[in-house]
Design goal:
With 275 residues, the chain is mainly α. The protein has one domain (6-223). The chain has 12 helices and 2 strands, in the order αααααβαααβαααα. A two-stranded parallel ribbon has the order 1-2. It is globular and about 60 Å long. The protein binds zinc ion (ZN) (2 copies). Residues 148, 152, 162, 166, 242 line the site of one zinc ion (ZN). Its EC number is 4.1.99.5.
Amino acid sequence: MEGRAPEYLHKFVAETEWYTDIVLSPLVPDSWRAPLPHWAQTWLRNYIGGVLVYFLSGFLWCFYIYYWKRNVYVPKDEIPSKKAMLLQIKVAMKAMPWYSALPTISEYMVENGWTQCYSSIREVGWPMYTVYLVIYLGLCEFGIYWMHRELHDIKPLYKLLHATHHIYNKQNTLSPFAGLAFHPLDGILQAVPHVICLFLVPTHFTTHIILLFCEAVWTANIHDCIHGKLWPVMGAGYHTIHHTTYRHNYGHYTIWADWMFGTLRDPEEESKKGI
Ligand SMILES: [Zn+2]
Ligand SMILES: [Zn+2]
């Protein structure tokens, strides 16, 4: 990898400015944007981008599962009420300005050369890129599992932060909009492992951004109560159990961490037992 010379770091700044242009150019007049410092433009892009991804993925998914494929994936009497969804949207919207601060800070750290990020896959080659990515994802699985589990186990943290997300404890109150309905600090804490990885593992910056984006879509997806049955993916079937027992399936993309630390509950076996 090249050093962390200012010319090298400039590649990151060019990339983040490009993202900012994509999101803000069509929506915010240049004359409003220009006086804002770089970090404020980054935050504004994250905020607007976050709101758009949240609503677009939420509405499309709701339309598909509750309207277009009515009764196929979700029985009619288990469709969440409008009121429940609006409440989730309200909680998520309150938290969004704070969530947006996390990638703003992490980008600042990347642009200033504090992390192990690299700019182009060519610098390390595809084999090492893959190795680093697997380590990154493994650390995230581990980190997010424990962050989530501690948010349950440490009672004051649960009461103060995580309980906000757990008021949705029945199938018919969970919806894709619950995906970002957290206390702001709770949502940030659960995303922090992504940022910690930047310091521990050489990470391709663009891939990191894509992974954060996937995170937002994924979290909507696991709250739709539709069990995907795609081993070893920890989909909504597992996460619905998390919302009803509070003590299982803390994990992230895969069942790996729950399996390893003994908190896994398989939705298939649950339904066999008739629970
Ligand atoms: Zn939880
Ligand atoms: Zn949840």
